[in-house]
C-alpha cells in the first residue's frame, strides 16, 4: 500500500506524522458524499467500489474512509 498522508487529526485512522493507518482508502466524488452504500468497511461505513466516476480536479473528491476518533 502506498504511503497516505492525512492532516485530519480527529480521524480514528490518523497516525503520527500525518499518516493514514487505514487498511483501505475509499475516495469518492463529492456528488456521492452523502450516499449510503451497501458494502461495509470498519463496521460503520459502507463503500461501493464497483461504479466508476470522473472528477475534473482533486477539489471534486472526498475521502470516505474518515471515521471520527472516539473520545
Kindly estimate the percentage of residues that lie in beta strands according to DSSP.
Answer: 15-25%
- Class computed from helices, strands and strand pairing: mainly beta
Outline, from the CA principal axes?
globular
Q: Please identify the oligomeric state.
A: single chain
Number of helical regions: 0
Instruction: Please tally the β strands and state the result.
Output: 6
Largest β-sheet summary? 2 strands, antiparallel
- What is the H-and-E element order? EEEEEE
| Measured distance between first and last alpha carbons | 28 Å
Q: Percent range for helical residues? A: under 10%
Lateral arrangement of strands in the main beta sheet: 1-2
List unreliable stretches of 5+ residues: 39-44
Rounded mean pLDDT score: 78
Radius of gyration: 13 Å
Characterize the structure shown.
- This protein is mostly beta strands and 71 residues long.
- It has a domain at 24-63.
- It is built from no helices and 6 strands.
- A two-stranded antiparallel sheet has the order 1-2. A two-stranded antiparallel sheet has the order 3-6. A two-stranded antiparallel ribbon has the order 4-5.
- It comes from Brevibacillus ruminantium.
Amino acid at each position: 500500500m502506498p504511503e497516505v498522508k492525512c492532516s485530519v487529526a480527529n480521524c480514528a485512522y490518523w497516525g503520527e506524522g500525518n499518516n493514514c493507518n487505514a487498511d483501505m482508502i475509499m475516495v469518492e466524488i463529492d456528488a456521492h458524499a452523502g450516499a449510503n452504500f451497501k458494502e461495509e468497511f470498519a463496521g460503520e461505513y459502507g463503500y461501493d467500489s464497483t461504479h466508476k466516476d470522473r472528477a475534473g480536479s482533486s477539489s471534486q473528491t472526498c475521502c470516505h474512509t474518515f471515521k471520527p476518533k472516539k473520545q
